Amino acid sequence: MTVRITRRRAITVLAAAAGLSLLAKTNQAQARLIRWEGTTLGAPSTIQLYHTDEAKARAALDAAQAELARLEGIFSIFRPDSALSALNRDGVLTDAPAEFVELVSHAKDLAAISDGAFDPTIQPVWRLYLSHFTAATVDPAGPSRKDLDAALALVDWRGIEIDAAARRVALARPGMALTLNARAQGYITDKVAEVLRAHGFSQMLVDMGEPRALSTKPDGSAWRIGIANPADQSKAVTSVDVVDKCVSTSGGYGTVFDEAGRFSHIVDPRTGLTAPAMVGVTVIADTATIADGVATALILAPEDKRQHILRAAGALQAIFVTPDGVTATVTA
User: How does pLDDT run across 179-202, given as a tens digit for each residue?
Assistant: First the structure.
């Protein structure tokens, strides 16, 4: 059995802090860095927060962790008590949390914009790949075409029924299921950032799987974020400087099902085939919610559709990389 999971840790933060303290401005109190580390939906997560009052900063981080836990209770596909698991189990969710309705609506909109290159109902096919490659006896050729076609018959973003006023989300056919992994980490990043800002903090890097930079570092410099090499995520092929932006990367190397790396976790909803493991795309946008989903859509979209998706979804730039470096840059 070979399922190598790195949870899409495709971004490496470079020089996020040049030390434990910096002067925010002349004659102001010294701004110090406090760092939190944890996980979000299984992905490594960090918060880097500059402060002048450690007690206040720790209280803000406690509130951020509480918000993270609350949202994981809504969006986790692994927790049987989550809102997402309830929808996938029962086919309908009534009294859905407002955040759930909002994010599913966002996901459905992106599916329409991308002509189905992004489709949150891909979960039955993903489950097929997982069960195939974790079986006692594994065919290295992957799932059969017959099994893929049966799973693909359950994939159709148009079958997501949303009644926002009634807070009701339903799936059109038995066996359909959603995954929000290509959206929820970004959404949680934005929500956690809102909590920290509400506590009076503005200079920080919030990364719940998708790093979002708020303001600058205290010395006025931008946050530098490295775009990882798909073949070695400890190394960057290039980097970007960001202020008040999010950077999200999607790449098949995040989860590889087989030793040869032929089958990745990013599945094309139109064919059932998986994206190449050694290709990544990084999207820069104003929010992590936008950047997260668009990155997944673009790695599967035809080249001539990339700019349209980027613009229509509200993102700013996409950078495509392989182990050899940057292969293309698309600007909205």
Answer: 998 899 999 999 999 999 999 999
Q: Report which of 208, 204, 209 is spatially closest to residue 242, judged by C-alpha positions.
A: 204
Classified as helix, coil or strand, 300 is: helix
Whole-prediction pTM value? 0.91
Domains and CATH numbers, the chain: 83-171 (1.10.3980.10)
E strands present in 73-135: 92-93
Cα–Cα distance, 91 to 275 (Å, whole number): 28
Q: What is the mean pLDDT of residues 30-44?
A: 90
| Residue count (the chain) | 332
Specify the residue for token string 């500059």: 50
d(CA 203, CA 216): 6
> Which one, of 100, 321, 141, lies nearest residue 231 by Cα?
321
The dihedral region occupied by 174, where left means phi > 0, alpha psi between -120 and 50, and beta the remainder, is beta
Question: In this model, does residue 16 exceed pLDDT 50?
Answer: no
